[in-house]
Amino acid sequence: MMITNGSVGIHHKKSKALYHLPQFSYIGDWQLLFNLKSIYDYKSYCEPGQEFEPTRIMCLKKSKFLDLCYLYPKTAANFKLRALERRKRITEQVDTELQEHLAMKSQFIQKIKEGSGRVRNLENLDAKI
Q1: Which of 7, 21, 24, 52 has fewest C-beta within 10 Å?
Q2: Helix intervals (H) in the chain
Q3: What CATH number should be reported for the domain holding residue 12?
Q4: Mean pLDDT in consecutive groups of 10 residues from the start of the chain, 129 residues
Q5: 19, 10 in Cβ contact below 8 A?
């Protein structure tokens, strides 16, 4: 699939957009080329500062796309190379975002534990009085 108008944000679960694919980017090609299921959500976006226009995507059936790749192996090799490069960039970004999220979550849990420890100490203090 190719984005012919607008842009698409790639999300992991319900996170903010981890990666933006602008107009004329390919989307979903690595899933087709390597027979993978997507773990990402894709949402269309309007480019900042532009009037809203719907995102348009040019699609091919999987069977037609793979037939074309078979007929044009050099082009298919180029598609695979570019898809792997893009997938690597996206997964690196996702890993970074997830690590930051987990670190923040760990800090939050630690603060809660410290806070509840103070509450327990106050409860013990009340029991002694």
Answers
A1: 52
A2: 29-33, 62-71, 73-128
A3: 2.60.120.10
A4: 86 76 86 86 76 84 92 94 87 77 77 62 43
A5: yes
